[in-house]
């Protein structure tokens, strides 16, 4: 058997409202929000006493989804902020955008910061890495 599709990428954040605003500014759409708790959630995740706010974000084409979660219980475990790009684990989520400079300017108003600089890749592609809420690294790529 093979997989049918990738359902979503999940990211834990410390401020769900701010993360939703950041990704809406990027151009994603809020599909829905829910509070998750109960024995089924505890069993699925392997934690006891889960209470978690979740927001499902979708790309405008409807093919990509990002699940943002903010745990109320058990308490969030701290992780170092501003981790370097070469750390083990989740690397980044890459988005294609119409105008990389405009996108950077809009996301900076939500506390985001450019990690390096916008670089030219080949003849038709500009790209950069950008740090968003909860230290999330996203990639931005503009194809002309």
Task: Write a structural description.
The chain is of the alpha+beta class. It has 2 domains: 9-73, 2,3-Dihydroxybiphenyl 1,2-Dioxygenase, domain 1; 93-143, 2,3-Dihydroxybiphenyl 1,2-Dioxygenase, domain 1 (Roll). The chain contains 3 helices and 9 strands, in the order βαβαβββαββββ. The strands form 2 sheets. Strands 5, 6, 7, 8 and 9 form a 5-stranded mixed beta sheet that branches. The protein has a 4-stranded mixed beta sheet with strand order 1-4-3-2, sandwiched between helices. Strand 7 (119-121) and strand 8 form a beta hairpin. The model has no long low-confidence stretch (mean pLDDT 91).
Task: Please trace the helix and strand order, writing H or E for each element.
Answer: EHEHEEEHEEEE
Q: What percent of residues adopt helix (DSSP H or I)? A: 10-25%
CATH class of the largest domain: Alpha Beta
The number of distinct β-strands equals 9
- CATH topology-level name of the largest domain: 2,3-Dihydroxybiphenyl 1,2-Dioxygenase, domain 1
Overall geometric form: globular
Unreliable residue runs: none
Radius of gyration using CA atoms only: 16 Å
Number of discrete domains: 2
The CATH superfamily of the largest domain is identified as 2,3-Dihydroxybiphenyl 1,2-Dioxygenase, domain 1
Through-space gap between termini:
38 Å
- Assign the CATH architecture of the largest domain: Roll
Please summarize the sheet with the most strands.
5 strands, mixed
Which class do the helix and strand fractions yield? Answer: alpha+beta
Beta-strand fraction estimate: 35-45%
Give the integer mean of the pLDDT values: 91
- DSSP helical segment count: 3
């Amino acid at each position: 058997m093979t997989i049918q599709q990738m359902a979503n990428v999940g990211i834990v954040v410390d401020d769900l409202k701010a993360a939703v605003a950041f990704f809406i500014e990027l151009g994603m759409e809020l599909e829905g929000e829910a509070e998750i708790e109960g024995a089924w959630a505890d069993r699925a995740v392997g934690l006891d006493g889960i209470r978690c706010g979740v927001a499902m974000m979708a790309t405008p084409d409807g093919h990509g989804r990002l699940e943002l979660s903010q745990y109320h219980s058990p308490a969030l475990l701290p992780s170092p902020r501003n981790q370097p790009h070469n750390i083990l684990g989740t690397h980044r989520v890459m988005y294609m955008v119409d105008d990389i400079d405009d996108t950077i300017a809009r996301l900076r108003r939500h506390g985001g910061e450019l990690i390096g600089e916008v670089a030219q890749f080949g003849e038709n592609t500009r790209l950069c890495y950008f740090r968003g809420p909860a230290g999330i690294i996203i990639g931005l790529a503009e194809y002309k």
